[in-house]
Amino acid sequence: MTQATLHGRPVPAPGLMGTALLLAARGIPSLPLRVGKAPFGNCPTCAGNACGGRPNMKTPGPCQCPGVCHAWAAATTDLAVLTSPAWTDAWRRAVAVAYHPGGAGLTVVDMDDADAIAWARQTLPTTRTVPTARGEHWIYRGAMTSHNAVRPGVDIKSTMSYARYLGPGTGTMADLPDAVRALAGKQPPAVRPAPRAVSVPVPSGGGRCPHRTPVFLERGIAMAVQRITAARSAIHATVYGAFLAVLSTHGRCGCLTDAHVNRLFTAAQAKGESLRHCTDAWTNARTTLGL
Q1: What is the pTM of this model?
Q2: Where are the alpha helices (DSSP H) in the chain?
Q3: Other residues' Cβ atoms within 10 Å of the Cβ of residue 170
Q4: Contact 55, 114 (CB under 8 A)
Q5: What are the residue ranges of helices labelled H in 94-169?
Q6: How far apart are CA 198 and CA 267, in angstroms?
């Protein structure tokens, strides 16, 4: 088998960077994901969107800073960027590779469960299929606007979004059908169940409380809820990141109550997340922090 090359240089096969370079050779922009399947946070120069609104970009690509910044917008096929010192360090700490489907002229129909897959098999033309932990990615040739929760268990990932790379998949890629475009603009929104009260482990304390008044805790919860509510793409990753931020600050001091957790879960469910996804994200965040 002939080794893949990019710009005349051999592409290493093993490892996450090698996977990204192989994707680049196929014209697919990629980026590293940290624990929780979330992008790396912005560098200090770009923190708080200080560099000028990169998340609103219409095309992918790195910022002028050397860091792996701005989530989906960081995705690139540039060999020099992918192998730069900042990115090499990120690859060492990464747990997965993601790609920007829209940047490669692709659309991913992300199905989270068996019911969603059964619906797709009855409704959509067959195409390249990639198994996921809970369902399948159906990949079509053609880009469109990304939308979450277009129907129960179904997200559309294309422009201004990212999908985890889980392998080349099987089957012949078909052109993006009108039925998928219709999900985003013509069909009525999916009916979502009313948010449900939850019972999840709340840390019981034992650590030093990092705040001196309840106002600090209230502000942290409100900021997390706002972050989730404002998300327009990558909802799963945003919810996990918000949970992680709350738990990293308040998870060891025992100040979190069921009421606080319910507020976070309610915000996530309003964005289309299921109760199971919320619980999984909370559990994963606690595991990451060793709680």
Answers
A1: 0.61
A2: 15-25, 79-82, 85-93, 114-123, 178-185, 214-230, 235-250, 258-270, 275-289
A3: 9
A4: no
A5: 114-123
A6: 13
Distance CA 146, CA 169 (A): 21
What does the radius of gyration of the chain's CA atoms come to, in whole angstroms? 20
How do residues 141-199 score in pLDDT, each as one tens digit?
999 988 888 888 999 999 888 999 999 999 999 999 999 999 887 444 444 445 554 55
Tell me the backbone φ, ψ of residue 196, rounded to 5 degrees: -110, 145
What is the per-residue DSSP string for 4-48? Answer: PEETTEEPP-SHHHHHHHHHHHTT--EEEEETTTEEPPPPGGGGG
Pairing, β 30-34 against β 154-157: unpaired
* 140: three-class secondary structure by DSSP: strand
Give the span between the Cα atoms of 221 and 217, in whole angstroms.
Answer: 6
